[in-house]
Each structure stands twice: as structure tokens, then as C-alpha cells.
Amino acid sequence: MTPSDLLSILPLLVLVVWACALLLVDLWLKRKGVTAFLAALGLALTAGLALAQAGEETTAFGGMVALDGFASFLNVLFPLSGLLGIAVAYGYLKRMNIERGEYYSLLLFSTAGMMLMAHAADLVVVFLALEFLSLPLYVLAAFARPRLDSEEAGLKYFLLGAFASAFVIYGIALIYGATGTTSLSGIVAAIEAGSLGTSGLLLTIGAALFLVGFGFKVAAVPFHMWTPDVYHGAPTPVTAFMAVGAKAAGFAALLRVFVTAFPALDADLTPVVWVLAALTMFVGNVVAIAQTNIKRMLAYSSIAHAGYILMAFVAFGNPATRADAVASALFYLVTYALTSYGAWAAVIALEKQDPSAGSGQAASGLEINDFAGLGRRRPALAAAMTVFMLSLTGMPPTLGLVGKFYLFRTVIEAGQVWLAVIGVLTSLISAYYYLRVVVVMYMREGAPETTREPWLDFTWAVSALATVILSFLPMALFAWASAAGVMGF
Amino acid sequence: MSIPLSWYLLLSVALFCVGLFGVLSRRNAIAILLSVELMLNAVNINLVAFWRYLDPARMAGQAFAVIVFAVAAAEVAVGLALIIAVYRRRKTVVADEIDLMKW
Amino acid sequence: MATETIIWFLPLPPLLAFFLIVLFTNKNKALSHGIAVGAAGLSWLGSMLVFVRALGVEEFGKHAFESVINWLPTGETWFQIGVRIDPLGAAVLFFVAWTIFMIFIYSIGYHNFGQPEGDHDRKGLPPHGATVTDAHGHKHTVPSVEPMYSRFFAFLGLFAFGMYTLVVSNNLLTLFVGWEIMGLCSYLLIGFWYGKPSARNAAIKAFMTTRIGDVFMLLGIAFLYSATGTLTFSEIFTEEMLHHLASISTPILGLSGAGLIGLLLFIGTVGKSAQWPLHVWLPDAMEGPTPVSAMIHAATMVSAGVYAVIRMFPLISLDPATMSIVAFIGAFTALFAATIAVAQNDIKRVLAYSTISQLGYMIAALGIGAYVAAAFHLITHAFFKALLFLGSGSVIHGMEHGVLHTGNHHVDPQDMFNMGGLRKKMPITFWTFLIGGFALSGFPVITAGFWSKDEILADAFAHGHWAVFITLAVAAFLTAFYTMRQITLTFLGEPRTEEARHAQETPWTMTLPLVVLAFFAVTYGWVGIPEHFPLLGGLVPNWFHEFVGSTLAEHPEAAPFSIWPLLTSLAVALGGLFFGWLVYRNVKSPAEDKLQIPVLKNKWYFDEAYDFLFVKPAYWIAEKFTYLFMDRAVIDGILHVVARFSLFLGHAFRNYFDKPVVNELIGDGTGNLVKASGRGLRFIQTGRVQYYMVVSMVLLVIFAVLYYFLIV
Description:
Low-confidence stretches of chain B: none
Radius of gyration of chain B: 17 Å
Distance between the termini of chain B: 55 Å
Structural class of chain C: mainly alpha
Number of domains of chain B: 1
Low-confidence stretches of chain C: 630-636
Largest sheet of chain C: 2 strands, antiparallel
Strand order of the largest sheet of chain C: 1-2
Number of strands of chain C: 4
Largest interface: A-B, 38 and 42 residues
CATH topology of chain B: Helix Hairpins
Order of helices and strands of chain B: HHH
Number of strands of chain B: 0
Strand content of chain B: under 5%
Strand content of chain C: under 5%
Oligomer: heterotrimer
Mean pLDDT of chain C: 79
Structural class of chain B: mainly alpha
Number of helices of chain B: 3
Shape of chain C: globular
Helix content of chain C: 55-70%
């Protein structure tokens, strides 16, 4: 370990130290607003440092950690998503009487785990990062203790997460056995040397188990079933953070591993990912139609979007589109992050302190019908929500359209026209339930009670503006994502 | 070195399957947690065996096994905390009964 | 700030104003118009800055302001969008900025800002007036404020966004986006008083008619893109590209590729600029509030159609066949609309037909290749026609004041035969209207209209387009005639009704724009005085020709000077004005008007003809044919065996294919299936975590087996 090693993961390091310090400092802080502010400061500092690192290409810790375009892109995205996670949570926690300082430290730790994931150039680090980001999330999901639904969400998330980790680590062990190394470049070298023999089977099984484990993490069908329950039960700011951050981190690992190691394997796995993507898009969108609870609906929507991002993996099979595939997947991640944070923020604005809290009943939660009359009561909020729904559907003038456009184009260029067709058709299906929210907001009479909190309002307003404005000027973002598509070790 | 590597691998697979079966079939959440631990230990057997047979000169496999221990311990800590929290309010640790949220 | 950056930002303030008003300040009238006018002012300021900087650039035609960004990736390359201000763009930007800004200000007064809320005003109807009690206890009826005041400014803002977008575009795609936004706003604003059935119908008519043109235009754009792979002006107007386009042959009318694209684009203009035969919507569009008529239907949107043709001139001028069509439609429209204007009694409808006629002038000028003259007339016309519309709005406003005073609501405040003698009541309106009217008629030397119209006539004469020359000369005579008729009936003589006697001058927010526009209606002509004009020529350099002409790669020659077109234009302008005054100075009622010929009065029966040719048959096919064709009685009675057979086939298709397959399986079926499967799949979700794991594992095993057998 040399100073330059530490320097290359400086943002991550700063964040971890900051989180530890915050955990202690919080003990002496009466006003949790200060904790929130300090946490936000730490994240902003991290994002700034990560931004300053952009353009650097190096490896550290004996090749276990990589700093490249990919890492620095995600290392900016993750702290920013953490910042939004604090913005939406601050007022919510107060309102729900669960204002505890640990929230912020845990969020920081989880963000650090995600950043480590972006750096990972070694399967051991992938595993470590996976646990590092998941463990705080299990606790966060149960954070609204003693609310039954939150506790239940935490437990379910934990059980499935631990189960999935076992698959991941077993897969990694088999890959290690097959190639004699856990470093990604070493694995590639071993595959390309072509001396695997019978251990080729071990490698394939290992890769499959790895895929299954991450299938759970990113909620791909058929490993998605925990998602609605957990998203429903967890405190909504945590859900938002999970839906964006944890999912992005899962995809970061998959992207990293697939892009580097899978060119040698792709012939085997392309049809698998094809089916996985198609199923995920289809099931996510179809089941979402039947939902009446807005949180569950958005949970299924997040499953469906995982399917869209999975489409990019099919394009890895074609060397010509590999770089584009990473770029469009990253671009779509940003698209989804912005839009979904905005939508969750709108949900938070409507959530009341649940009367059933503390009773033995499940929290009924917020129904889609509770949005009735929002168009009159809060025109700006309703307009923002409309933007998010349009963006999730993939309609102009929103970033969702641009993201889907890039994604479908990449898939078509990779020769997978039918998958793109399924993508388009399922987007059409999705219009049904997204636009229903819009219809309810504007066409139905109602008097929703909403909360006005400056940071919350800030979140949805910024997300909506960015969703619209970036859709007209997506070039810079796409160029950056393209730069991130080039991975070096 | 009379015992071939494949024996260890089979043992590991068997242990993993026992753990998997436990996770899927046990009703008690704590038992599920323990079964997950079994699966992780199957991984450890794998890792150590691979290290011993393929690459004894470097410590990577062993180190990895140690990391898995540590992570497993952390997982158990968080898991037990969650289970206890649920138990306090519902007086049950049966996984099937924790089904408030569905559909 | 870099000029390019300013240009990028020009359209934005009105768009922001639109969103701010709709979302936040809807309730607050003063804030709403403050935001809107402020935004228009910002864009105006930016436009003037760009204009002034453009003047300072040497050889601006070659070094236009242009900035592009990559927008959408199209495989290997990018689809680029960008902004461009070249000499033509700068000149157009100048008048667009001025007219839009003035009309924004005018709208404040027009919608009676500061007046009380109406007694029984409803949203969707024009304000009816409010009763107030003054200090002495007398009750007065005064104009009341528009109920949807803020909404109006929001729409105006969106419209201004569309227009600015169109002007700064460097490519056909964003130009078309701006074009369609304006179409939408035109629809919304014509139907602004949606409580009136006539306004609703007019809005639909305008939208549908212009859409016909737009569809063809979009076809043209698509054809152009597939032929060249670009929509950027500067890339299309290169030597090779134009040559390539001219060499493509098409199966339609023997036109070249360039000719066909030009024709398709031109049809878009025919719709937007209300040229014959798609002119029918514009007069009806006068149902909208007058600032709308002034802005959309005189100064900016309809001008955008002409602007598009001017913009695409290098392409359109490639094919002589297309040019002949353009010239014919323009000249015919110019004459035809002028004849109708002569017999209209509604003050705004006269102006509407006059607008159609003047736009025809410009189109005809383009058709004979008079590029600069068309652009010149486009700009002068925008100024004086906006002035005339705003003036007519002011007159109507004054008359409404009289109507409120007498309380006789049967008097139409827009009918010119109810007016007369208003020059004393409304002096500012009168003088500015007079200037506008004279400019429209081409009153010699002092008005802008004279110079621009003269240039078109001179061009037609010099290049031997006799038919066009004579048609336009006759149209010019009619123009002067009906303009003087309008002025005489409205302002001169004695008041013909009690209402006219009590008309009042309008507030400063309405008269200030009139004065500003009147200033331009006079002075703007002086920048384009031909070099060899007797006495005046050369005193002021012919700046306009030099400036705008440099937009084209090949600088167009100014038409050689000849005395004949000058004499013609003097004769028709002065003659028309004189006769207009002579005939109408003593006319008291429509009955005494000799020119109320049915065919003119009824606009050559075009509405009726379209009704007969398109609308009725459409209804007929829809109701009678389709409906009764299914009807047993008709089949039994009239149609014989063939019809029976086709009926049988029809039924067979309907019952065995359409209904079960198309409707139920594909139509309802898919929807229901999706919903049902959504509901079904939902119940897999039992809430038990181990159940989830089992399902996943079972599916995993199934997939693994399938994978093994199918692929490995």
C-alpha cells in the first residue's frame, strides 16, 4: 500500500472516514439537522473530489482497485444520489418521528460501498463492496422501527440479500478455482490463454451463479419478487435511495465484470441475458398495471427499468457495439436515477404520518387514487410528477425518451431487433399505468394533503427541470458516459 | 496428496445444497440465517481447497476465505438484530408469518 | 456574451414566461403580464443586440452567426441542431422582435387591465362590462377585465417562443418544431373565447386547414432528409448538394427532386400563409382577440410561411415548374383576396383579406425570383399590417365603449357602417391608422409600403413577367381602393350611430404600440430606396438590398430602373385612394354600397364550395354511405346482386375477421389479456420470503435445463 494507492481512492476514503466521524459526532449533536448538513457536506466533498479525479486512469492496491472513466463517472453519480437521499429524507424523518442521526451515517456508508463497487477490479473487492453497500441498506430498510412494515421490509431484504450473496460468493469461488485468480484482468488472461480445459465448465457455472446473485441484487425477473415488498415497506426516502443507488451499484458490478471478462464468454451468455431482459421488462410492466399502491407500482416500474438496462448487456455480444452498450447503460442509469428520485420525492410529499403506525396492521400506504386533485392543489408538483411519469414511459420532452432511444439503438445495432421490439412494446404497456397517475392527478376531484418542505420541493423541482432540459441537451452527458465506457485496468 | 480436488468440491456442493435446502424449507428465521451461513462455509471449503491444490504459493485464496468469515460475521450481527426487532413486536420468528406486505 | 450564445437564448424567456404563468402566477394578473412583457422585452433586447452586432460584421452573408451542437446520434454521425442568424435572419428578427414586443404591451390595454371584474363575465367569453358607481352615486357601465387574463399572456409567451425558435433555427427540423408550436398556439388563441361556437369552429377550421399544408411540408422535409442526409440550411445550399437535388428525377409531374421538395415545402406555406386554395381559415380566425389577429395572423405566423419560402429559395428556385406554380398561386391570391376585401363590412375581415392578398404579393414576388423584394415587402408589411390590426382593435375597443355607454348590445362594434367620424374621437388611432392604411396602399414616397411594393412591380416588369405585373397592379389598385373605403367609412364623415358618437380614445398601453409601429411603417421603407430612383435615389444607400441580398451565394442584381412600373404604381395607389374616398364619402348604409355584389360579399363562395366539395361528401360518406350501406333497406331496395355480394363479403369480414380477430383479439383482447395477466401475476406475490426464493430457484432450474437442451 503506497500513498498513491490511497490517493487513487481518495474520495472513497474521505467518505468512509467522514462517515465514521459523523457516527461519533452525532452522539453530541442535539439537532439532527446539523447531522444531516454534515452528511451532505461530506457527500458534496466526495463528489467534488471524484469530479477532480475525472480523466485519471490508474490501478491501485496491486490491481484490485481501478480508477478509470467508469469509476469516476459512477463516483460522481453515487454521492449525488446520496445527497438527494438526504434531501428527501430530512423532512420525512421528522414528520414520521424517526429522526435519528444514524440514518445519515448509514447512508454514507452505503454510498461508500457503492463507490467501492465502481472501483472494483477484483472479484474479492466486488464481493466486499456488495456487502459494504448492502448491510447499511438492510438496517435503513428497517429504519422506521417500530413500524411493522418497515421491520418486515428490513428482514425480507436481509434474508434475500444474504441468500443472494451466497450465490455471488460461490460463483466467485468457482471462477477462482477455474482460473486461479480473482482479478478481472487475470481472469481475462486465463480465458484468452485457452488452457482452461474441464475447468471451463467450472467457469461457466461460476459466472452463472454470479449472474444469479446479482440478478437478485438488481431485481431481474425471476429474482425480483422481494422488490415490491421491500420497496413498499421501507421508509420512502430509503426506497428511493435503494431504487437508485443499490440498483446502479449492482449494474456497475455487472457492467464491469461483463465488459472485461465476458467477451470470452459472451457466446454462452447472450441468450440468457436476452431472456432475462425480456422477462424482466415484460413482468415488471405487466404486473405494475394491477397495482393500486403507488409505492408498489413504482417498485414494479423499477423492476421493468432493470430490464431495460439489462438490454444493454445483450449488446456486449457484438464487439462493435460494446462501448456504446456501456455508455447507453450508464446514460440510462442517470436517466432513471433522476426521474425515479423525482417520482419518489413526489410520493414523499403526499405521504402522511401513517395512522396505523404502531398498530398491528400493515401500513395501508399511499394509493394512486390519493393523487386525485393534485393538479389543482399543487400545480407545480403535479406538473413535475407528470414529467416523471412521461420520462418513465419514455415520452418527449423528457430524458426518458433520450435514454430509451440510445438503449434501443444500441440493441438494434447489435442485431437484436426483436429484443428492441419487446422493449418498445413493453414501454407501450407501461404508458397505461404511468399515464393513469397523470389522469388521476388532473381529471379526478380530490383534495390531497401535501407537505411543503424546502429540500423535498428542491429535489422534485430540480429533477423535473433536469429531466426536461437535459432531454434537449443530452450531448454532454452522453459524451461523458461514452468516456466512461472505456475501462482500463 | 491422495484425496483428489474433486472430492472437496463435491463436499462443498453438498454443503451448499444442504444450506440451500435449509434456507428454503426451515420456518424459523434464525434457522434460515444459519443455513445461509452453511452456504458461506461451503464457499470457504471451496476457496481453501482451490488455494491448496492450484496456487499454494500465494495467499489469495486463504485471504479470501478470511474475508468471507468476516463478512459472514457482520451479516449475522445485522441479521440477528433485525430478527430480534421483529420478534419483539410480533412475538414470532416464523418467516412465513411475516407477510404483511404482499400483492 | 458571445453573439451565438445570445441567439441560443433568444427563444427562452417567453417559454419560461409561459411556464411561470401557467404554474405559478395564474391568479395574479399584474404579475402575469409583468412576466410576459418582461420576457418579451428581454428577447427584444437580445434581438436588437444581435441585430446591431450583425450590422457591424463585414460581409455578413459569408460570416453569419452560426453555432451548432450535436443533438442525436445517428449511427456514426450526429444529427446536429443549431442557430443561425444571417442577413435575412437578422432582418426578420428585427421586425419579429419589435412587433411581438409591441403586441405584448398592447394586450395589457386590450384586455382592460385595471378595470373591475365583470358583473356576469364567464371564462371563455369576451368580457361584457362591469357596473360601477361613481362618487356622485351615478351608475356607469365600464369595460371589464378579461376573465382569463393570465392565460392569454401564457399563450402569447408560448407563441413567441415558437416564432423565435423558427427565426433562429439553422435547420428545417427545429424550424418545423417552431412552426407547429405556432400552429398549436394559433388554435388555442383563435379559440380563446371558447364559449362562442363561432370561435370554436374557427379554431378547428384553422387547425385542420393548416395541418393539411403541414403534412405535405413534413413529407417534403422527410424527402429532403432522405435525399441529402441533412436538414441544415448551410449544408443543403451548397453547390454540389443543390446540383445533386436538381438531378434527381421523381415520378410526380416530371419535377426534379429539388422541384418536388420545394413544392411540398411550399404547400406548407400555402396552408400557413393562407394562400389560395387553403386561405379559408384566415378570415374566420378573426374570431380571436385582436392582438392575436395582429400578431399571429398578420405580423408573425403567417409571415413565417413566406419566410420559409424565402429561406428555401435556393432550393425552390432550382425548378422552373415549381417557380411557375409559386408565382401563379401568389399572383392569383393577391388579386382574388383583394376583390373580396372590397365587399367586407367587418373592419377586421377587410384586414384579413388584405393580409391574404399581401402575402400573395410576396409569394408572387418569390415566384418570379424577386428574392430581396419579397423579403422587403415581408418586413414592411409586418409593420404596417400589425399597425392596422392593432388600430382596428383600438377602434373596436373605442366602439365597445360607446356600446357600453348606450347599452344597446345589438350594435356590432366591428361593422364599419356603424362607425364614421371617429377621427375626432380617437385622434391617435386615426392618424396611426391613416399611416398604416397609406403604407398598405403604397402611398408614394413617404410610406414604407410604396417602396417595397414598387420594388416587386419593378422586378416583375424588368424580367418580363407581364401576367404577374398586370395582376399585381390591378390588385394594388384594389388594395388602395378598399383601404380608403375602410378609412372613409370608419374615420371620416359624421358618426352614423349613437355608439360611434360616444366612442373614446384607448389607454396609452394601446396607443403607444400604434405610434411605434407607425414610425416603422414610414421609415422602414427608406432603407430600401432603389439606387436610380429619380431625385431620391442614392441619397440613402439601398442598404436593404445589399444586406439581405448577401444571404444568397450569388448576390442578386437589383432590377434596372424603369419609369413605367413607377408610374403604374403611382397611378394605382393614388387612383385607388381617390376613388375609395370619392365613392364612399357619402355612403350611409350597406344598401347604398354599389359593390356589395353577392359573389364578392360571399367570398366567391369558397366556403360553400369547400363545404359542398369536401365537408358534405365527407359527412355524406360517413353517414349515408357507410351507415346506410350497412342498412338492410338500402341493400334490399337499391343495390342489386353485386352489391349483395359485396355486402356479404363485408359482413363476412366484419363478423369473422374484424370483430373476433381485430377487435377482440387484438383490440380489446390484448388490453384485457395484459390486465388479466397483471392481476394474475400479482397473486404470485404472497409476501412470504421463502416462497419467493423457491419460485426463483424453480424457475432457475427450469431455465438451466432449457438452456442446456436448447443451446448447449
